[in-house]
Design a protein that fits this description.
GO terms for molecular function: D-ribulokinase activity. This is FGGY carbohydrate kinase domain-containing protein. It comes from Salmo salar. 52% of the residues are buried. The chain has a domain of 246 residues: ATPase, nucleotide binding domain (Nucleotidyltransferase, domain 5, 2-Layer Sandwich), CATH 3.30.420. It has 551 residues and is α/β, with parallel strands linked by helices. The chain starts with 9 loop residues before the first strand and ends with a helix. The strands form 5 sheets. Strands 14-15-13-12-18-19-20 form a 7-stranded mixed β-sheet, sandwiched between helices. The protein has a 5-stranded mixed β-sheet with strand order 3-2-1-5-11, sandwiched between helices. A 4-stranded antiparallel β-sheet has the order 4-7-6-8. It contains 18 helices and 20 strands. A hairpin with a 4-residue loop joins strand 2 and strand 3.
Amino acid sequence: MAGSDPVEWYYVGVDVGTTSVRAALVTREGQVKTTAEEMVTIWKPHSDHYVQSSIDIWAKCCSTVRKVTQGVQRNQVRGVGFDATCSLVVLDQNFQPVAVNLDGEAERNVVMWMDHRAAEQAARITSTGHRVLSRVGGVMSPEMQPPKLLWLKENLRATCWRDAAHFLDLPDFLSWKATASLARSLCTVVCKWTYCPTEKWDTSFWTAIGLEDLLENDHSKIGNVTCCPGSPVGEGLTQEAAAELGLDTGTAVGASLIDAHAGGLGVIGADVRGFSLPCEDQPITSRMAMICGTSSCHMAISQGPLFVPGVWGPYLSGMVPELWLNEGGQSATGSLIDHVVKGHVAYPQLQEQAVKGGEHIYSYLNRHLSSMAKDLGAPLELLASSLHVWPDFHGNRSPLADPTLRGAVVGLPLSQTLDDLALLYLATVQALALGTQHILEAMTQAGHDITTLFLCGGLSKNPLYVQIHANATGLPLVLPAQTEAVLVGAAVLGACASHDYSSILEAMEKMAKVGKVVQPDHELWSFYRKKHSVFLRLHVHQREYMALMND
């Protein structure tokens, strides 16, 4: 194996998130040596429309990879792995971008994952009751690709739909740009396109929803060749891509992943021996990976298919080859916290205090809450006992699977001080944790036996968010040794494609490392049971109000 060679080998992981492209140079042991990041442009031409450019994204991929590989020889880079948001890329027959909005600007050819323009199309697809819906929790989400494709056909038939020759998930677009291979990763087509590895495309589904034209030429527009995540794509980097990335032609490229799934690879398989965790010496199916950033994903795997109402999946080989994946999620988490905090009238005062103390605003808020709790002689988390948030400001992804739900706050006072802002922030974080508990309960009822949570992503760096999740769920939380676990997960794909590791499972165990374990405070369990009861009642009352208004 290459690991016996005295020359140190590296792998490049590239993560295309919602707002930026990041790259990392990662060792065989999973240590991140260098990282680089560049922001990408987002256009918002209409309400619920979010659009990007595949040209812009690829350019940022190239520049960040060149930056992180500056200090090593090209032949030391053994493999490259890409992950990205599950956004929809549209190209014409010459592989040029096709506009996805009425403005007609071709460069703006990516319908972002969080674009909810196709909510009505998603509802219509759900109403068909087609059998493929059983693999997405029974409800089609507007964040998946079939409703987005249907919206394009119904609204841009004479432009986008006429000119489009290739519809790709963004992770597959990146693999194609790197290798010229149109092979789709099972992660993308299974999780976001209703593809089934054993049954292939279900032609009756596409016909039933009015997209039978995608069946032409052996499904060429949506892909007719698939591969497992981490398997080698094509012949590796093409000459053109290698020149753009600053790497050698033929460097191995692993079949890509959706960004949240890469985060799962970067944490869930870590060796936990010596940490006294309940998942030690237990199957990997006792673990759940939680990737928490702008939104959050809750990834649980099983040996056989488990059908969880309102939770996506089961997906065969959706993250780990030959294992089934269920994917819960919250459409707005980090973005919700930002929305609540930055929209408060006391936000300028918060900024001023944070700048004065040389702190990030959330570090200041956490410290401010600790000070308030000390003054009152009460546990910090009890400060928001009478303040409750329903966090679905951007709809509920899981387990209610209702994109029409909206947020609610109960218990607001007339005052709007910095203390009030801190308490609203606390109640929002608690609501997100209770949302995670709601998802866990649905998974448990369907047969999952999860004993330990593995967190990564931007919110996992917020100690209050982490501790509240441990307390609200009653489960220990594992944080990775490398804070950039998503990038490690992407690098795992390159390591597998290079054949330096024999499987995804082996690469995960060797490259993912435990950094810290956070235990729940069981003395707060009773408090969170009461809070959870109020949380669920908020949802019931909100649906009743909406039904009354729509009657």
